[in-house]
Design goal:
The chain is α/β, with parallel strands linked by helices and about 280 residues long. It is built from 7 helices and 12 strands. The two termini are about 15 Å apart.
Length: about 280
């Protein structure tokens, strides 16, 4: 399982579920920046890295090796679930956008500056995802949407590496038992293995060190952490190795989950969750 190479005939599908509830305006642990802004920034960086992985050289456009969906979920003023695609570009197929189309159609390009050891460095940053925060957390509706996307993908590309769903949230579901929906997602399967469901719980303020890629539910501190553990897939071996390279003690049986994630943990988690790029043909 989880060995299918990624190419034009068997591309890869990545689905990001993004909590856009009101509490996402609270600052990310270790920063003064709202969690919604941190998540949008990291997703934009992740999309850019995926595009770069699909480019054989700087002189040719990226190839259609990845289809990406970013689905935001929140409730409106009447407490109705709002679940919608955060990326909409020309050529998009439903909620999924190919890396080729993403490269050509960002919302905008921002001119930015960062400090380096040699002084300020100017660079251009494509933006596809905007931060948003309001209402509640209809996580079940979001997972239902992810299931529809993944089911359609598997029907079209049955031999491909299975879809990867990464859920980024700062709270429990407000529309039912998310664990039930996560189990439904994990029952979807391509010829290469079951869908991979990963969950990252974002932290606010000063918290304990993040619990990253645990392999023993009995070591987790509370009911919600244990629920996240059961909701999350076991890391394939190459992803576990990627977590170890990131400096984490990801033992055999490690799950794709994080509790109390700060900025660094979000970056590492997304790097591990999208490490399927090593399978590019």
């Amino acid at each position: 399982m989880y060995t299918q190479r990624v190419d034009r005939a068997t591309p890869s599908c990545l689905i990001f579920l993004v909590d856009q509830s009101a509490s996402m305006y609270d600052p990310m642990a270790g920063t003064d920046t709202p969690k919604s802004v941190v998540v949008a920034e990291q997703l934009n960086s992740t999309v850019m890295e995926l595009i770069q992985r699909c480019s054989k050289s700087h002189t040719e456009p990226p190839r259609p090796y990845f289809a990406v969906s970013v689905v935001g979920y929140r409730t409106d003023h009447a407490a109705n679930a709002v679940v919608e695609a955060c990326i909409n570009v020309p050529g998009q197929q439903g909620d999924l956008a190919w890396t080729t189309d993403l490269a050509q159609h960002p919302l905008r390009i921002e001119e930015r500056t960062r400090q380096t050891s040699d002084g300020p460095l100017s660079y251009r940053m494509p933006i596809w995802v905007e931060p948003l925060n309001e209402g509640g957390t209809p996580m079940c509706a979001a997972m239902d949407r992810a299931g529809r996307i993944a089911h359609s993908w598997i029907q079209t590309y049955p031999q491909s590496f299975p879809p990867i769903v990464i859920n980024l949230t700062d709270g429990e579901s407000t529309d039912g038992d998310a664990a039930t929906w996560a189990e439904r997602l994990k029952k979807l399967s391509s010829d290469d293995g079951p869908l991979l469901m990963f969950n990252i719980m974002l932290a606010t303020g000063s918290v304990l060190a993040p619990a990253m890629f645990p392999n023993d539910i009995n070591q987790l501190p509370d009911r919600f952490a244990r629920q996240l553990f059961t909701m999350s897939s076991e890391l394939p071996e190459f992803m576990r190795a990627a977590a170890v390279r990131q400096g984490y003690q990801a033992e055999p049986g490690a799950r794709g989950m994080s509790m109390n994630a700060d900025f660094r943990a979000v970056v590492s988690f997304l790097n591990v969750g999208t490490s399927v790029g090593h399978l590019l043909r």
